[in-house]
Design a protein that fits this description.
Elements: E1 15-19, H1 33-36, H2 40-44, H3 55-69, E2 76-80, H4 110-116
Helix pairs in contact: 3-4
Length: 117
């Protein structure tokens, strides 16, 4: 089953795009820091907006959701602009398809196992 949701937000709610801290590089032979540094989360926790508020927990929640649907390419997320890190994550995706149901890609859970274990 696949579905689609289209939302029109008023101009008074501008969005700000953020690079996902556990995004992949998509370059052959080049790993993202989180792929080789098991203490990467410690550095993320010292960086705004992940150093206070719920943002890091929202990233971890998103990782669990992405794992369940097989989405290994969460490279950006949005939030409401000028929210000072307080708004929830807004996940916009072209949603071409769900991942392979026969493959569990453990690396999708990196925010969870690097920050919570």
């Amino acid at each position: 089953m696949e579905g689609s949701v289209t939302l029109w937000l008023p101009d008074v709610w501008p969005l700000q795009k953020h690079r996902h801290p556990w995004g992949r590089t998509y370059r052959e032979g080049k790993l993202a820091r989180w792929e080789y540094d098991e203490s990467y989360c410690d550095a993320v926790k010292k960086t705004s907006p992940y150093d206070s508020g719920p943002r890091l927990l929202d990233i971890i929640d998103t990782a669990v959701f992405d794992y369940l649907i097989g989405n290994a390419d969460r490279h950006h997320y949005e939030s409401f602009q000028d929210d000072e890190g307080a708004s929830m994550l807004i996940l916009l995706d072209n949603a071409k398809s769900f991942g392979n149901p026969s493959l569990d890609e453990r690396s999708i859970l990196a925010p969870l196992y690097q920050c919570c274990m």
